[in-house]
Amino acid sequence: MVQLQSVVQARPLAFRPQPTKPAAPARRIVEVESLQVIIKTAERCNLACQYCYYFFMGDDSFAARQPIIGPEVCERIPAFLLQGVEQLKIRDLSIAFHGGEPTLQRLRDFDRLCTALRAALAHKTRLNLGMQTNGIHLPDEWLACLDKHGVELSFSIDGPAEYHDRYRTDRKGRGSYQRVAANIVRANAFFRHRSGWTVGSISVMNHRFDARRICHHLRDTFGIRKQSYLLPIRSWEQPFEEGESALAYGEQLAALFDAFVADQSLQIYWALEALAFFKEKRVVTQARQLAPDEAYAVCKALVVQSNGELTVDDALISARDWRNDSQPRSIFFDALADVVNSRQSWQLLEASNRLPDACQSCSVRKLCRGGRPEHRYSAQRGFNNPSVYCEGLQRYYGHVIQFLIRNGYPEQKIVEKLGQ
């Protein structure tokens, strides 16, 4: 019998960041399998969520940009992306309309943007359009437009009213649950004619809340089965609040995994991602043989701001020093291929693909990959740190491994997958 005690038991996190220097890129990305582009159609919001990292985490750069995306930016985006798709041979392109709150954009401008994006890109790549909304303002005209362009819809909702209204309030301090709930019900009814279609949800986790209760509430009250859960933005520069702990979030992730096991009609990303690791690897056939100085990548999210400025994923707002130490980029002056190959993009790609030094001996390192880059950042060592959620991630992945063992998954195969 293979001994897996070191795998399924979390060890205390005793790491403290020390200075290091980032490695320089040695190759150029010439092909991209998939890319997500976030378009900030509005950089203001009709809510004032207390935990919002975009408006309330000390970065006020949004205030220097126009509140609503302008027509000149909308006109430029399709051509900018088309050139990138052709140059980088992008196979899958996901575009997410985001904010702030994207429905603050004029509907006719949104309609024109979606029409232009589909006309320019649908015949060149597998194109997916989606919108993340707080659900406050969503009249029938918006639902009809989303239906017209096949835009997938996801609501930001943190569970039942007593959870959701604790932080997701409007500018007068009033809870938003009842308004969001009514619009979710309306959206489900509006799209009932689309077979298999359902709205999705994104919930920000909280150490005070019951994650399983949130999951069941979204499923039983609204029929939402496609559920995403975000760990709060924490890093070595943005530590835990009083009463928080990494282990508490690990317990919540384990509870979400158990909810998925009990009802596998649910699509919970954390569970699906962990189980996919233990499945047989699929064979990826590249389009052509690449030269030694060329690279093939799955790139992280790129953000188009309301003024056409190009930045990295908002979640990396916790890495403020690193974000600010970059060359300004714009859809009006730069090519997508050059942005993908910028020093900042390469550092982020390396952070995603290279284990931090402190993680090299961890038993679940291949499964965890050091956690998400935004949870690893420190001004001293960049992304070469373990996640601040390390102890919780070990608890969660250990829980998944115990489940597999109890249900007959060969222990020797687990050991091989984990590289033990």
TrEMBL record:
Residues covered by the Radical SAM core domain: 41-192
The protein's name in its UniProt record: Radical SAM protein
The organism of origin for this protein: Massilia solisilvae
InterPro entries according to UniProt: Aldolase_TIM, rSAM, rSAM_sf, Sulphatase_maturase_rSAM
Pfam families: Radical_SAM (PF04055)
Keyword tags: Iron, Iron-sulfur, Metal-binding, S-adenosyl-L-methionine
Lineage: Bacteria, Pseudomonadati, Pseudomonadota, Betaproteobacteria, Burkholderiales
CDD domains: Radical_SAM
Cofactor: [4Fe-4S] cluster
Top-level taxonomic group: Bacteria
